[in-house]
Amino acid sequence: MTHLPQFSRALLHPRYWPLWLGIGLLYLAVLLPYPVIRYIGRAAGHLAMLFMKRRVHIARRNLALCFPQMSEAERQRMVKQNFESVGMGVLETGMAWFWSDARIRRWSAISGLEPVTELHARKQGILLVGIHFLTLELGARIWGLHTPGVGVYRPNDNPVIDWLQTWGRLRSNKDMIDRKDVKSMIRALKNGEIIWYAPDHDYGPRTSVFVPFFAVDQAATTSGTWTLAKLSGACIVPFVPRRKTDGTGYELFVLEPECQPPLESAETTAGWMNQVVERCIMMAPEQYMWLHRRFKTRPPGVPSRY
To answer: How far is it, in rounded angstroms, from Cα 182 to Cα 241?
Structure first.
């Protein structure tokens, strides 16, 4: 059972004061009009490129591995847009945590929710696939305003961030489950809950299988999708929270539910899931988290891809 962090006086210790100052500045920043927030976020992304050289390299390398046909000029342009999205992602996290429900609704729209609502009404468990777009915190908040569910998360090593992210995510969702607490996830799905789940990162060799992802033949991919779907009978529903390029807000696309995913083996499910993830990424490739070392886990004998 997952024990969620609670606020305590220990979080006000002086060693956390610089962090609280940063949180306060983030809170004040997201009180600004959205066009101003958008300008600040994109400018912050340009600045981040100057100081996050390692992450810039990782983003370029990921794009080269996934899209070998992409020209160098196209790749450079994509990296620049991606870091604009990185800067926006920080502010969008603050928006997700601190904006009112009314302001979230004003700047967002959702489509494709009706089939999910019908499944949920029948107490059908739903594995909601929300991949690592840089808008993911805001996307989860938008989703929760319409059909609250249960989030799967990794506890943060910093207790202030751990409490704050939990508090923020529970503003529009029912509960949170540690990503290692598989039993609670399966139980919730069997009880007809919606579980938010992200199967697109490299989570290490222990629970991964090697299957294709874009142009990479052997990408370490979690076998968790197979485990959860097979043991719970859940329908799988991908969704994409996309930032509008014209600055008018956000649109959340709910893709068609799949209630009979291929479950012959962990490899079969992971390969199919990666194809779904690819489709989602291509709906807003510049907004995906390319700075994550997606291919850090290698098959035996394969040299580092970074």
So the answer is: 25
